[in-house]
Every structure is written in structure tokens, then in C-alpha cells.
Amino acid sequence: MDKVAGSKNDEFYTPYYAVKPILKYLKKGATIWCPFDTQDSQFVKSLQMEGYDVIATHIEDGYDFFEYEPNRDSYDYIVSNPPYSLKTEVLERLFELGKPFAMLIGVVGLFESQRRFEMFRDNDWEIMYLNRRVSFMKDFTSGKTALNPPFSSVYITHDILPKQVVFEEIDKKQVLLPV
Ligand SMILES: C[S@@+](CC[C@H](N)C(=O)[O-])C[C@H]1O[C@@H](n2cnc3c(N)ncnc32)[C@H](O)[C@@H]1O
Questions:
Q1: Is residue 91 within a helix (H) or strand (E), and if so which, with residue range?
Q2: Rounded CA gap, 67 and 51, in Å?
């Protein structure tokens, strides 16, 4: 695949309360690949805290999602919040990889391009709606949320949720994983 460039608007990080609703749908003892994450990520920390094995890879550490995959037999799920500017390319690659996945993605316009229309039409997937909008963080430690997005985020999943549409409530006070 040609090199795919992200954008600086991709540097927003997920608060713990937005990771929490997906946790109960992942089988205990599983190994989870977080392909857009460093050890600081709330995905990585929360999954480890719940007892999962986590493979965290990030472009800064030399692991380009479009070129790298851990050994296929070594992981069970792919879970993360991907770079927004690459959501179509990310979803296409995820469907190609064929493993169960869950990606937290802004829902506005998600079904509106012809390319994504065809992708969603031709693949099996599920969606999780959250009752509140997720406010993303600009750093991993302060707990401050810089962006209050004018759109809702959803989990698009493949082979994870028990129904095609699932609704979950979040508690926005839990920004960082309790230590
Ligand atoms: C929206 S941020 C989310 C980060 C983290 N997953 C979280 O939820 O806190 C997406 C991250 O993916 C990284 N990224 C961009 N392109 C990538 C690529 N091709 N492979 C791996 N990581 C990439 C960005 O640098 C950015 O840190």
C-alpha cells in the first residue's frame, strides 16, 4: 500500500470513560493489539488493568499501521481510536485484516462517502452509540480535555458486539483511569 499521511489534528487522546464501555465485550484472557497507541494510552492502561495482554504499537515507534501487523496468531482483537484523517483507510485495512475490531470514531459523515458506503455495505459490522459526546485530551496526564467536539463518537466494531446496534452510557467524570 502507498504511504498514508495523517494530520496534526490526529493528536487527540481518548479519556478512560470512553474506553470503559467496550471492555465488557472483550473475552477475558484475550490479547489485544492497540495499533495507534503508546504505553501512555488509556486504552493500553485500561486493558492491562482488566488483565488483557496488550500489544501497543504507534507510528512514532516505527510501527505504521498500514505496513505492520503483529503475528496473526498472537492477538485476538484490534482496539483503539484511530487518526481521524485516515478513518476510511483504517477501516478498509481492518476489514481486510479480518480480525475482530473496535474503533472509536466520529459519527458525523461516517456513512456519507461513496467509498465508505460501499465498505459498510460489503462488510459485517456493529455500532455502539454513547449517551454523551466524548471530549478528547491533548495530553495523557493533566486530565484536561481540550476538544469538546460538536459530534458524537461511536464504536464501529466487527465481530465484537452481540447486536448490530448497542447503546451504552458513559460517566464523563472518569477522565483518567483510577490509579
Ligand atoms: C486520534 S489519536 C488516538 C491515540 C490513542 N489511540 C488514544 O486513543 O489515546 C491517533 C494516533 O494515531 C497515530 N498515527 C497516525 N498515523 C498512524 C499510522 N499510520 N500508524 C500508527 N499510528 C498512527 C497518531 O500519531 C495519533 O497519535
A1: helix 87-97
A2: 28
The CB of 135 under 6 Å from ligand 1? The reply is no
How far apart, in whole angstroms, are the C-alpha atoms of residue 2 and residue 14?
28
Ligand 1 centroid from CA 12, angstroms: 8
Q: Which ligand 1 atom is nearest residue 13's CA?
A: 9
- Closest ligand 1 atom number to CA of residue 137: 9
pLDDT along the chain (179 residues), means of 10: 63 95 97 97 97 97 98 97 94 98 95 94 97 92 78 96 98 87
The CATH label, of 3.40.50.960, 3.40.50.150, 3.30.200.20, 1.10.238.10, for the domain at 8-168 is 3.40.50.150
* Domain coordinates in residue numbering, the chain: 8-168
DSSP 7: -
Pocket-testing residue among 17, 59, 66, ligand 1, by greatest number of atoms within 8 A of Cβ: 59
Residue pair 55/65 in contact by the 8 Å Cβ criterion: no
Nearest Cα residue to atom 13 of ligand 1: 36
Buried/exposed code over 32-45 (b: 16+ C-beta within 10 A; e: otherwise): bbbbbbeeebbbbb
Amino acid 44 reads: V
